[in-house]
């Protein structure tokens, strides 16, 4: 079991997947909300280090400049990706966040998709097509939280459960 990071561009569905995993009983942290990001837009490094030093698994979502400093503390870095037109459509129609509706925001999203998403892709251990249903994406991430053969491996090694 381990810590998982879900990352990707705005509008890709990170919060939706995290919400589904939380509904299934997994511990989740959406770093877009609360005290996780400082005024500079980067993760609060001492806070994130403390979170990731805990033994219990956690699924974290976010896309910040300094997240790469923490990649070695995650069992997996999952990139959710979708074509730019899908992202722009989702951003323009979502009701839970105003980001992405203005021309300025959309120009920024285009620039991030061009310049930042390739960096995220290089650091990812798994990329998932975010056009898939949220439940399927959550299924894929859930396999990383507790691999299905982990219990079998313990049973096989010790002969008991």
Instruction: State the major sheet.
Output: 5 strands, parallel
Distance between the termini: 17 Å
Helical fraction? 40-55%
Q: What best-fitting shape do the alpha-carbon axes yield?
A: globular
Give the second-level CATH assignment, the architecture: 3-Layer(aba) Sandwich
CATH class: Alpha Beta
Mean pLDDT: 89
Radius of gyration: 17 Å
Could you give the order of strands across the largest sheet? 2-3-1-4-5
The CATH superfamily is known as P-loop containing nucleotide triphosphate hydrolases
The count of β-strands is: 5
Q: State the low-pLDDT regions, or none.
A: 150-161
CATH overall fold name: Rossmann fold
Q: Number of DSSP helices? A: 7
Question: Your description of this structure?
Answer:
This protein has a single domain (4-149), classed as P-loop containing nucleotide triphosphate hydrolases (Rossmann fold). The chain has seven helices and five strands; from the N terminus they run βαβαββαααβαα. The chain is of the alpha/beta class and 161 residues long. A five-stranded parallel sheet has the order 2-3-1-4-5, sandwiched between helices. The longest helix is centred in the last third of the chain and has 13 residues, at 103-115. The radius of gyration is 17 Å and the shape is globular. α2 (45-53) links the parallel β2 (28-30) and β3. α1 (14-23) packs across α6 (134-145) and α3 packs antiparallel against α4. Mean pLDDT is 89; it is low at 150-161. It is 43% helix and 12% strand. It has helices spanning 14-23, 45-53, 84-93, 103-115, 117-123, 134-145, 150-158; strands spanning 4-7, 28-30, 59-61, 76-81, 126-129.
């Amino acid at each position: 079991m381990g810590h998982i990071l879900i990352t990707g561009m705005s509008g890709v569905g990170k919060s939706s997947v995290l919400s589904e995993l939380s509904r299934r009983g997994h511990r989740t942290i959406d770093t877009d909300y609360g005290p996780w990001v400082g005024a500079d837009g980067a993760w609060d490094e001492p806070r994130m280090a403390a979170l990731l030093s805990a033994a219990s698994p956690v699924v974290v979502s976010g896309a910040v400049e300094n997240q790469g400093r923490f990649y070695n503390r995650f069992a997996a870095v999952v990139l959710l990706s979708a074509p730019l037109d899908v992202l722009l459509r989702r951003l323009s129609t979502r009701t839970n966040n105003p980001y992405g509706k203005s021309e300025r925001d959309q120009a920024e999203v285009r620039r991030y998709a061009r310049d930042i998403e390739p960096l995220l892709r290089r650091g990812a251990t798994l990329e998932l097509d975010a056009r898939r249903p949220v439940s399927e994406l959550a299924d894929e991430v859930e396999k990383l939280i507790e691999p299905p053969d982990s219990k079998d491996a313990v049973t096989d090694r010790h002969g008991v459960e």
